[in-house]
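Morning run. Coffee first, then this:
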Amino acid sequence: MKQHSTTATARRIGTCTRDADVLIEGRATIDGGLAYGPIRIEVYACEEHARAARTEWITRPLTAFTALAEPTTGHHCGEALDRD
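And here it is:
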């Protein structure tokens, strides 16, 4: 089984600095599109930018998912974490 690196790089997307309301995760498909692999990017977004986070900030070949149980306290819109 291939081991995935845990290196992560923080960056900013856009200029909004409102408190984050959602965490969007980007994952690549594996096994011919039948499953999803590890998280490749995490993006925090406010309500206004949540749709953009899913459709513009996380782009193909990654698929965007809303992380339902992850707390967003202390994070701001546009904070991103790229996982290598």
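Helices lie at 50-57. Good start to the day.
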